Amino acid sequence: MNQPFKLFRILIAGCFLFHGAAKHIAAAEPPIRIGFVGDFSSVTQSYTHNAFAAAEMAVEELNARGGVLGRSVELLSRDGAIDPEAHYRHVTELVRDQGVVAIFGGGPSHTVLAASQASREREVPYLVSIGNPQSVVVEQGHPFVFLFSPNHRMESLGFSIFTTLMPWRRYAWIGPDYIWGREVMGFFREYFEAIGAPIEWSAEIWYPLGNTDYRDGIQRIIASSPDALIVATWGEDLRHFILEAEKSDLFGKMAVFGWFSIIPGSDERLLPEGIWKISRAPFNYLADKYPQTRDFVDRFNHRTGTFPLGFTIVCYDSIRAWSEAVAQAGSVNPTTVATALRGMTFVGLRGESHIRAIDGQLNSPVYFGRLTYPSAYPLGVLESIIEIPAEKLWLSEEEVATRRRNATPSSGQ
């Protein structure tokens, strides 16, 4: 065989080798990175761990189906420890240094607002499932933030409607002294004043997040003799409050309703049966209503040995919506995906869901019912559930636009 022909064969073989190597490199594209910033070590830790388990499950399911756009998804997490500066810093670092293309999770209102500011600066979608300040999507809203639970004004209005149907006229309040608690109380007052309801506030008890001593506050509530007590306490604070309240038979002396966010595990039975409780996504009710939710609840229980909180169902929906937006956009580019999320409709664990284009607010209903301990579950669930559609509770698009125009510019983190 002459030398030129041998050289030609070597060149052809080299081309095939190069082509094969190129195909291998293309097949080994790096994973798509998304981030979860929550509070794993503070008052919200039980909610955060429960929701993060659903986030991990959602990502594993995406990867089992071949990933997103043919690429695997990698979930990174950070602990914000209810520190707004930490939430801001973690979002910034995840996007800038780790190449994250979307942020999930959340925390108390002040941490969500800080993280949202970072997402705005970094132009990356922030899909909030824990924490629900209205201002994050209204007064301080921007194209990259989305709220997957009803905001706190929607919840307050829903509960206000409920209370007008009851015979109660004297109310006591106990709640955390930060932006969420103060604004929720303000929404109650605003609604009752607007309809001219003849009510009276007999006591207001405020305490810092992370409080453990409720003795004095409980005695002040009892002394004020209210018809009903509104409890805005949650997380680890709720556990301490309930233990102290039981010593004084607080729940036997008055009607009680509020957020009472369920604590997973053995502490769950601390919640008194019969209280009226709000929920962002009651798993038993939704599992009976939607086959996909029943399947999710069963898989989540098999995986974790417990049941999903409302925050958890909301978190799973947020990752589902993001993955569908990526598929629709044909890109993981943060700006392109944020645009696809606006006005998007998808089927989630709460049925057909729609993200309103003007503010990124999901049309999440507000649910509330009475707590009971049925034999079918090893924990308390809600019965006699009332579901109020978002359309009856959220601000109109005109009101959103007006509030944005009149809002004080954000001062940053």
Summary tags:
Rossmann fold, five-stranded parallel beta sheet, 2 domains, 14 strands, 18% strand, 413 residues, alpha/beta, seven-stranded mixed beta sheet
Structure description:
- The protein is α/β, with parallel strands linked by helices and 413 residues long.
- The protein folds into two domains: 32-150 and 285-364, Rossmann fold (3-Layer(aba) Sandwich), CATH 3.40.50.2300; 154-279, Rossmann fold, CATH 3.40.50.2300.
- The chain is built from 14 helices and 14 strands.
- It has helices at residues 3-27, 45-64, 84-98, 109-122, 152-164, 179-195, 215-223, 235-247, 250-253, 283-289, 291-304, 310-329, 334-341, 397-406; strands spanning 32-38, 73-79, 103-106, 126-130, 145-147, 170-176, 200-207, 228-231, 255-258, 276-279, 345-348, 351-354, 366-372, 381-388.
- Strands 7-6-8-9-10-13-14 form a seven-stranded mixed beta sheet, with helices on both faces. The chain has a five-stranded parallel beta sheet with strand order 2-1-3-4-5, sandwiched between helices.
- The radius of gyration is 24 Å and the shape is globular.
- The model is unreliable at 10-26 (pLDDT under 50).
